[in-house]
Each structure stands twice: as structure tokens, then as C-alpha cells.
Automatic annotation (TrEMBL):
Domain DUF6534: residue ranges: 177-273
Source taxon at top rank: Eukaryota
Segments passing through the bilayer: 20-43, 55-80, 100-122, 129-155, 167-191, 218-241, 247-268
Alphabetical list of InterPro entries matching this protein: DUF6534
Name used for this protein in its record: DUF6534 domain-containing protein
Keywords: Membrane, Transmembrane, Transmembrane helix
Length: 334
């Protein structure tokens, strides 16, 4: 049975299905490994974070572990258990539905984390609602479409019938793309709007060129997070529509949730680095001012003393927590 069915299958068909399947799984496992390392670094670097934030990290990591495990099980089932059986390759089992749900649930949780961060960063006012409401609505629509897609593929039970779910999958990918773009845009506008606050917290309000460097770093981080996940969602949608009857869309589908995990963990793990950069910049700026200028400016002298003391390791963690809290990154607020 296996030999007869596999001998009539063209090479291009195998390459566009099983070949893409393996490549996608390979990329997903690499990104999962990167996320695993970031999880370990997070708990090693930030043991004093609140339990809510730690639970959030564990939830994301658990969902991604379920996703990569179920896809590995599906791969083993096709390539080993049913080797040469083409009907097994095209069959949709509960493993496919499980990995789809786990991946998009992980993405949803990360999107809610960034929505919460944007909400807290903007403080009281209408702007926080203008930014977060569209993000939450698009994320909830994405979650609803995920459930619909999982139920639909379980019902049709074959990749040969996957075109019947085109409208659901297209809306799902479009909502994911829109949510990522909105998050990147909102973070950019929010960070640029808090330029003065960041300058004061970092002690660089008298050095706009130096403070711009820090703000530029924060902005680049924010845009990169949204751009990477948005590109993955766009690739997913384009390949699904442009190349039917193939598995090329797996490339965007399987890697997107891992990009979400890594983007959130990168945001958490970069806090210490950004704080250190701001302190180094402040110390460098104040140390470059002649002593007679500092003596003639009592206020600047006091700020310089505070900035210099911040570099002391005994005060570093408290100062970092205070800065994060003022910027809305406090773990207790998540």
C-alpha cells in the first residue's frame, strides 16, 4: 500500500508538503530553543519580579512547549508511524488542532501583555483607550477565529479540503497582522510622547542628544517586536492564498508564535540593559562638565551626585525598579 501510493507522487508535491513541513519544524525548534534560553535568563536575572509576571512567562513557555511537542508528535506520526502513506500526510488529526490552538493562544497572551503595557504607559486620559481598545478588539477577533479554525479543520479532517476554511483563516491572519501593527504604532507614539519623562528619570534632561540615544533604542526595540511578528503573519496569509494545496504557509504559521514568545521575553530581559545604558550616559554627561560649572549650578550638582551614586551596585536594583515603575513597567502592575 505504501509503496504503490508513494511511487506515483511527484517530487514537487513532496517538496511543497513534507519538505516545507520539515523546514518549518526546523525553524520553529530553533526559535523555541532561543525562547527556552530567554526564559532561563529571565528567572536568573529578575528573581525579584512579581509572581504575576513570572506566571505570565511560565504560561507562554508552557503553551509554546505544547505547540512544539504536538507538532513533533504529528511529524513522527507522518514520517515514522505511517511512513510512505500519503493519506496520513494529508490527514488532519487532533494534533494539528492542538498545535494551532496552543500557538495562537500564546500569541494572544503576548498581545494582551503589550496592550496592558501600552495602557499603563499612557497613564490617565483618553489616549490609553484610543490605543488599547483596537488592539484588544483585534486580538479577541483573532482568538475567536482561532477557535473557529480549530473546529473547522477537525471537521473537514483533510488538508485537501482546507480551502473551505479560507475566509476564517484569512480573517485570522489579517487580525493578527493588524494587531501587531497597532502594537508597534502605539508603542512608538507612546515612547515619543514620554520623551520628557524618560529624560528626567534617566537624569539626562540637560543633555537632549544623549537622551535621544536612549529613546531611540527603546523605539527600535518596540518597532522590531511588532515588525517581526507582523511580517510572519503577512507571510502566513500571502502563502496560504497564493500557493494553495501546499504547506508553504506553515513557515509563517509555525514560527509566528515563537516570535511572540521571544519578543516578550526580549522586552523583559532588556530592562536591565536599558537601565544600565541610561545610567552610563548620565554619568558620562555629568562627568564631562567642568567642576566650576557644577559649583555654580547647585541643582545640577545635586543631580550629578545622585546620578553617580546610582552606579553603586547596592542601589542598582532599587533604582531600576523605581525607573520601571515610573515608566509603567512595574511587575506589580502587570
Amino acid at each position: 500500500m505504501a509503496d504503490a501510493s508513494s511511487s506515483s507522487i511527484p517530487y514537487d508535491t513532496v517538496a511543497s508538503t513534507l519538505g516545507v513541513w520539515i523546514v518549518s519544524f526546523f525553524l520553529a525548534t530553533i526559535l523555541y530553543g532561543m525562547g527556552f534560553l530567554q526564559v532561563w535568563l529571565y528567572f536568573h536575572w529578575y528573581p525579584n519580579d512579581g509572581w504575576k509576571l513570572k506566571l505570565l512567562v511560565l504560561t507562554i513557555f508552557t503553551l509554546e512547549t505544547v505547540q512544539v511537542t504536538t507538532f513533533f508528535a504529528a511529524t513522527y506520526d507522518v514520517l515514522i508511524k505511517h511512513f510512505g502513506d500519503w493519506t496520513a500526510v494529508l490527514a488532519i488529526t487532533w494534533l494539528h488542532s492542538a498545535q494551532l490552538l496552543a500557538g495562537y493562544l500564546s500569541a494572544f497572551v503576548v498581545q494582551m501583555y503589550f496592550a496592558c503595557t501600552i495602557f499603563l504607559l499612557n497613564g490617565p486620559g483618553i489616549q490609553r483607550w484610543i490605543f488599547t481598545v483596537p488592539i484588544v478588539l483585534s486580538a479577541l477577533t483573532e482568538l475567536a477565529m482561532t477557535l473557529g479554525q480549530a473546529i473547522s479543520i477537525t471537521y473537514i479532517a483533510s488538508f485537501t479540503q482546507i480551502d473551505k476554511t479560507t475566509w476564517i483563516y484569512s480573517l485570522l491572519s489579517a487580525c493578527t497582522f493588524a494587531c501587531d501593527v497597532l502594537i508597534a504604532f502605539a508603542l512608538y507614539i507612546t515612547l515619543m510622547g514620554k520623551r520628557t519623562a524618560i529624560q528626567e528619570i534617566a537624569g539626562l534632561q540637560y543633555f537632549p542628544s544623549r537622551s535621544n540615544t536612549i529613546i531611540r533604542k527603546l523605539t527600535i526595540y518596540a518597532i522590531n517586536r511588532g515588525v517581526l511578528t507582523a511580517i510572519a503573519a503577512a507571510i502566513n496569509l500571502i502563502l496560504f492564498l497564493a500557493m494553495p494545496n501546499t504547506f508553504y504557509y506553515f513557515i509563517g504559521l509555525l514560527t509566528s508564535s515563537k516570535l511572540y514568545m521571544n519578543s516578550m521575553l526580549a522586552a523583559l530581559n532588556s530592562r536591565q540593559y536599558i537601565s544600565q545604558v541610561s545610567e552610563d550616559e548620565a554619568a558620562r554627561c555629568w562627568n564631562s562638565i567642568p567642576v566650576h560649572v557644577l559649583r555654580s549650578e547647585p541643582r545640577r550638582s545635586r543631580v550629578a551626585t545622585i546620578t553617580t551614586n546610582v552606579t553603586n551596585s547596592s542601589v542598582y536594583q532599587d533604582e531600576t525598579s523605581s525607573r520601571d515603575s515610573k515608566l509603567g513597567f512595574s511587575a506589580d502592575n502587570i
